[in-house]
Q: What sequence folds into this?
């Protein structure tokens, strides 16, 4: 159940990359909240900044310049460095990515991979104190980690977990590999699970199982989750809230029911029109003519205006402010709404 207390709060996040061609302004003032108990979907086309936004929560941004604030349970993550940052990542975050095959090293058994993940997490949390313990104690830790590995495989629905620890990744199906990666992500009992396109590489039936698994785990363990996808169909299955990103900007942010019943941004409406029917096999986005904006020289004003079917005369002049629709929980950055608000103020 959603308790509406923020676990993560991202304020005015900007991300820049320098290249020979100039500077790309990849995230342009992202504001986002993940409440406790929420499964927040971040949805948007390829290149819209979903992964970069998620990585900022782990302060993982090699090569880019990040400004703004990322608050996690009262701590500013972007100010963390070194052992403090490692401890934070190991104890609070679990991350899973798109392709389970490339994320499991084929030369190690599932047991070695999982036990290693558990021990690394423990070292990161306890630091030098754990590193300095004697060999005999280490053996004890290994035994405990093996027990935890079995418990985690059980949790993610892998039958006969003790036997399967000695098998290699190629002996697991695609869906089972993704279950193993979820188990690894849970090694440190995280508060937030970040799942970046966790089901894109899987077939439709397995996708649904993995989504249900994520939903069950988040509920049972009273965690929160960030689910990144380009597929509104996936969002509809398990998310409690949705943030829609376009060109490095959150254009709309709302509870799941409101996004589907009362979408406000023309881009959100375009995404909803592009949801594939049951007969189609893939959730690729279609139906929004034009291509994503350049980050080297982004469009002036609203970044969506060159593709927007409802653009107004002044949409290219300055970025629209974020306004709330009905109540604080639904917000949209679009002149269709700022203009409406202005008119209603003028009438009052
Ligand atoms: N190291 C980098 N240098 C320059 N640009 C980068 C770098 N990393 C990412 N970008 C750019 O940042 C933008 C946002 O990338 P991001 O990976 O967040 O998109 P995304 O929404 O996750 O897309 P996808 O759905 O394809 O995963 C992209 O245009 C990408 O090219
Ligand atoms: Mg991505």
A:
């Amino acid at each position: 159940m959603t308790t509406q207390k923020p676990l993560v709060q991202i304020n005015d996040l900007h991300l820049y990359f320098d290249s020979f061609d100039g500077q790309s302004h990849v995230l342009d003032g992202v504001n986002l909240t993940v409440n406790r108990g929420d499964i927040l979907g971040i949805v948007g086309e390829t290149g819209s900044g979903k992964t970069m936004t998620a990585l900022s929560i782990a302060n993982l941004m090699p090569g880019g310049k990040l400004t703004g604030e990322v608050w996690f349970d009262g701590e500013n993550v972007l100010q963390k460095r070194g052992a403090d940052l490692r401890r934070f990542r190991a104890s609070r975050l679990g991350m899973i990515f798109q392709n389970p095959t490339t994320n499991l090293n084929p030369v190690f058994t599932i047991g070695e991979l999982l036990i290693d993940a558990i021990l690394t997490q423990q070292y990161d949390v306890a630091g030098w104190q754990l590193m300095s313990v004697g060999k005999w104690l280490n053996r004890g830790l290994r035994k405990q980690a093996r027990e935890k590995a079995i418990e985690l495989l059980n949790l993610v629905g892998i039958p006969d977990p003790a036997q399967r620890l000695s098998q290699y990744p190629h002996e697991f199906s695609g869906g089972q590999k993704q279950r193993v990666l979820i188990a690894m992500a849970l090694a440190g009992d995280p508060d937030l699970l970040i799942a970046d396109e966790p089901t894109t590489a899987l077939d439709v039936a397995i996708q649904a199982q993995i989504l249900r698994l994520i939903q069950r785990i988040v509920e049972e363990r009273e965690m929160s989750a960030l689910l990144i996808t380009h597929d509104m169909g996936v969002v509809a299955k398990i998310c409690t809230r949705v943030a829609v990103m376009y060109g490095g900007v959150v254009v709309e942010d709302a509870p799941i029911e409101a996004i589907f019943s009362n979408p406000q941004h023309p881009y959100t409406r375009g995404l909803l029109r592009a949801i594939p029917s049951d007969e189609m096999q893939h959730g690729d986005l279609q139906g929004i003519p034009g291509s994503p904006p350049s980050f080297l020289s982004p469009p002036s004003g609203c970044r969506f205006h060159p593709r927007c079917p409802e653009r107004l005369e002044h949409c290219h002049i300055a970025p629209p402010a974020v306004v709330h629709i009905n109540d604080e929980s639904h917000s949209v950055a679009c002149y269709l709404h700022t203009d409406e608000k202005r008119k209603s103020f003028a009438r009052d």
Notes: Residues 135-155 form the longest helix (21 residues). The mean pLDDT is 89. The radius of gyration is 22 Å.
